[in-house]
Amino acid sequence: MNLKMELLEKLLLKLYKGEYMEEFIELNRPEEEINLLSPLTWAYVGDCIYELYIRTHFVNTTNLKPHQLHIETIKYVKAKSQAELLQKIQDKLTEEEKEIVRRGRNVQNHHLPKNSNVQEYMHATAFEALIGYLYLTKKWERLKTILVESLF
Description:
single chain; about 150 residues; about 75% helix
């Protein structure tokens, strides 16, 4: 194998493992500190990570124009869809993940949802909290498993 192919293979492996994401975006808080953050902080990050994942998926797999990309993305990132997804994966979560979800669902949130009911919004917040927590604690494989599950 020539040197270029070898370097490309190493780069792809690092990208797959999420190693470059860590270099690109610093995640330097220890897990003990992340555990003490508000679940709303986890959800704040999780909202961004999940939407970026869904947007990237559609950019990679379709040739849609930006408005259609937005329409398709909204189907996945709206509160009702996230609440349904959480219900779908609930039985596959570890005890630690169930605790993160519980904390995310029960956190006091003073934001009233526009396009969903309060219960859907609470479950969507719990899903986003889980995604944010897994991202912040660098649990890449588990995060990837849940994100991939969200598409099917």
